[in-house]
């Protein structure tokens, strides 16, 4: 028997035992992601049918691409691949990344994490967002950097390093996760009129170098498989691809 036991939770019960659970979570950008945990495919299918009947679409989920059984379960429920993201481990040692001598472009200075001013930080974020929206679409960005439903960007100067030129910021790098354990490069972006000048490499050199001096050996990053420039940058500094995730959607 499938029962909705709370607003965001479903149980599959057989006799007096819970043999499967389903739940939902709402991301900062308003999208609803679903998750199902069960031992048997038949139970998964019943939970998926009940949840999809109760919930408005579109719905999303994320799976490890190596988990073929789970991917197949979601596909039976009508989900299809929306995008693939590669998971990388980035070394922080400048002797490995060869970023130790990466020069800052002329006229550009790096403002370290925690020192960025909020107003110009928001301005560069909005400018980059508009440029991405006009090309591949902002929805292609990682969920953690998407604006909330009210349009508020998830910006925190304490987590951002920026590249400054003249009186404005031209690029930013957001460090997510716990810096003392496994920091994550959540967003690295440069304004379109300042790309291909080494700004992104300079930001990455600064942040990874700072992490290395703090005793952190690696940082993680997720890169959309369609982002050729980001893939090339990650691999050029010795980043190691560890896994891949699929974002699935049913509409």
Automatic annotation (TrEMBL):
GO MF term set: acyltransferase activity
Segments forming a coiled coil: none
Presence of the UniProt keyword Endoplasmic reticulum in the record: no
Keyword vocabulary terms for this entry: Acyltransferase, Transferase
EC number(s) per entry: 2.3.1.-
N-acetyltransferase domain sequence ranges: 108-251
Alphabetized InterPro entries for the sequence: Acyl_CoA_acyltransferase, GNAT_dom
Full protein name: GNAT family N-acetyltransferase
Source species of the chain: Actinoallomurus acaciae
